[in-house]
Design brief:
Helix 7 packs across helix 8 (195-209) and helix 8 (195-209) crosses helix 12 (405-427). Strands 9, 10, 11, 12, 13, 14 and 15 form a 7-stranded mixed beta sheet that branches. The chain has helices at residues 2-21, 45-64, 89-96, 101-116, 121-140, 145-166, 175-186, 195-209, 286-309, 323-331, 342-352, 405-427, 438-451, 458-469, 471-479, 484-495, 515-518, 524-542; strands at 41-44, 74-77, 83-86, 168-169, 210-213, 216-219, 224-230, 238-240, 243-245, 257-266, 314-317, 335-337, 356-357, 369-379, 382-388, 396-402, 431-434, 503-506, 511-514, 521-523, 546-549. The protein folds into 4 domains: 1-33, no CATH class; 44-169 and 434-548, GROEL, domain 1 (Orthogonal Bundle), CATH 1.10.560; 175-237 and 402-429, TCP-1-like chaperonin intermediate domain (GROEL, domain 2); 242-392, GroEL (3-Layer(bba) Sandwich). The protein is α+β, with helices and mostly antiparallel strands and 575 residues long. Helices cover 47% and strands 17% of the residues.
């Protein structure tokens, strides 16, 4: 036993001497374990959080300067040299082609906001970036991410309650109020130069396609078609109580204009059908050839007869129209278009009340729709067909005009935002809030007061959430060239007053004013969705503490039409 202890002591002394001299190599005894493939990259802990937060903040900072009526535009140039000039948040982020996984989450925030509301994409992204910036400061103070995310959830739910408490309800048929919502959405965009006219058109268009069933309201956004054509100015834009399609009459002898149009919609070809399988017809005598041609002509005449007997004087066909049929229809002064898109056929059905017929032999007078006027016009150098003056159209067209393609595209984006806001107000039973950063300041104030009632470290997260909301009025001020500190102080002073929650920043004169009196109004749903989406994205990014990026596939690549390098075909086999 004593010998054994002596041996251990000797080995320990030798090991100690080797460690002191530096002769002992730990790698000789401890073998490293690799669990990831070669080339993989891994970030863990605080480094992973910091990288993700920095990437997300970078995305938010990119679109931050576009926020508000005084926001700037971005010029986006793709690989082909095509240019997009816009200050629409979701368009900018989509065209940027973001690669960082955390930054992509903010792109998803903007897409969700666009799909659910149609407006407020920049607000949602900027708010998400600020939430992460405030969280980063707390992480540096050793606040655990779980505590932060829990506090953000509490703050988000409370923010929803606060928003509901001071949101105002207006009548969904209050046209003037809806026009103010539309004007607010368009302010700061290219459409601003004709915002009053465009707002009136949009409100009237949505009112036309809105269907009610008791207390239920249904609005099909697809029933509102936006057609763009260069030429003229924005003031030349118009609302068509019907449909405009980029098709012209198929025969020059057809009338250019048809009053009191009886409209037939055909999802069938007005021509002899081709067989589905390869077929040969053997003709040995001239009489047989003549009989074949006469039979084909009789079939075409029968089709035209069915159309004429239906009483239709305008035909829209989703498929082709034979030359003979075109001639016969022109002789009867029937206006016809072919190869009409399926989506346009559905809109024509809603506008005129016509039913889409699948078989020419099954046409009846009950399938015919009505339009007060069908006319071919030349717009922007292209011939188009206008189907107007429909009795009870459930589908309408906004024809947008402008000097250049870039201008028209930006006007379309502004109109889409306005349409989304108006539909949100109508579907939300007329719930609105004041704009100009007033809603965010009010929620921030009440959240600060609420945080004082909490215990534990979640209180810090709720306070950080409240401070993050101030980024919206602060950014509005910065983009307008106004001192943000002075504005925030003035806003907070106004919101301390009773019923001061409608006061926001008027960027045109740099004063704090009642936004509802100025007509700066936004849908409640826009604010709710922005806060929800931003909070969810921030929480998801904060919960990530390990980022594992797989290495590139190092297996030999198969060349086009060949074998992997080194195989050598027949030569590799020694032949």
């Amino acid at each position: 036993m004593g010998c054994f202890i002596a041996i251990l002591l000797n080995e320990s002394i030798i090991l100690l001497v080797q460690l002191i001299r530096g002769d002992y190599n730990m790698s000789n005894t401890v073998q490293p374990i690799f669990i990831l493939p070669e080339g993989s990259n891994r970030n863990t802990g605080r480094d992973a959080q910091r990288n993700n937060i920095s990437a997300a903040i970078a995305v938010a900072e990119t679109v931050r300067t576009t926020l508000g009526p005084k926001g700037m535009d971005k010029m986006l140039v793709d690989a082909l040299g095509d240019i997009i000039i816009t200050n629409d948040g979701v368009t900018i982020l989509e065209e940027m082609q973001v690669n960082h996984p955390a930054a992509k989450m903010l792109v998803e925030v903007s897409k969700t906001q666009e799909q659910e509301v149609g407006d407020g994409t920049t607000t949602a992204v900027v708010l998400a970036g600020e939430l992460l910036k405030k969280a980063d400061e707390l992480l540096d103070q050793n606040i655990h991410p779980t505590v932060l995310t829990n506090g953000y959830r509490i703050a988000s739910l409370k923010a929803m309650e606060i928003l509901q408490s001071f949101a105002e309800s207006v009548k969904v048929n209050d046209k003037k109020m809806l026009e103010k919502v539309a004007i607010t959405a368009m302010t700061g965009k290219s459409a601003e130069i004709a915002r009053e006219k465009l707002a009136d058109m949009i409100v009237e268009a949505i009112g036309t396609i809105t269907e009610t069933n008791g207390n239920d309201i249904f609005i099909d956004r697809e029933a509102l078609k936006i057609e763009k054509r260069t030429g003229g100015s924005v003031d030349d834009s118009e609302l068509i109580k019907g449909i405009v399609i980029d098709k012209e009459r198929v025969h020059a002898d057809m009338p250019r204009k048809v009053d009191d149009a009886k409209v037939l919609l055909l999802d069938a070809a007005l021509e002899v059908k081709e067989t589905e399988k390869d077929t040969q017809i053997r003709i040995t005598r001239p009489e047989e050839l003549q009989a074949f041609l006469e039979q084909e002509e009789r079939m075409l005449h029968s089709m035209v007869k069915n159309v004429i007997e239906s009483g239709a004087n305008v035909v829209f066909c989703e498929k082709g129209i034979d030359d003979t049929v075109q001639h016969l229809l022109a002789r009867k002064k029937i206006y016809a278009c072919r190869r009409v898109k399926k989506s346009d056929m559905e809109k024509l059905s809603k506008a005129t009340g016509a039913k889409i017929v699948n078989e020419v032999d099954e046409i009846t007078k009950e399938d015919i729709g009505f339009a007060g006027l069908v006319e071919q016009k030349k717009i922007g150098g292209e011939e188009m067909t206008f189907v107007e003056k429909c009795k009870h159209p459930k589908s309408v067209t906004l024809l947008i005009r402008g000097g250049t393609e870039h201008v028209i595209d930006e006007i379309e984006r502004a109109i889409v935002d306005s349409i989304g806001d108006i539909i949100s107000v109508i579907k939300d039973n007329g719930r609105i809030v004041a704009g100009g950063g007033s809603a965010e300041i009010e929620v921030s104030k009440q959240l600060n007061n609420y945080s004082d009632t909490l215990k534990g470290r979640e209180q810090l997260a709720v306070k950080a959430f409240a401070q993050a909301l101030e980024v919206i009025p602060r950014t509005l001020a910065e983009n307008a060239g106004i001192d943000p500190i002075d504005i925030l102080v003035a806003l907070k002073a106004k919101h301390e007053l009773k019923d001061g929650y409608d006061f926001g920043l008027s960027v045109f004169d740099g004063a704090v004013k009642n936004m509802k009196e100025l007509g700066v109004i936004e849908p409640l749903r826009t604010k709710v969705q922005a806060i929800n989406s931003a909070t969810e994205a921030a929480i998801m990014i904060l919960r990530i503490d390990d980022v594992i990026a797989s290495g590139k596939d190092r297996s030999p690549q198969m060349p086009p039409g060949g074998m992997p390098p080194g195989m050598g075909g027949m030569q590799g086999m020694g032949m």
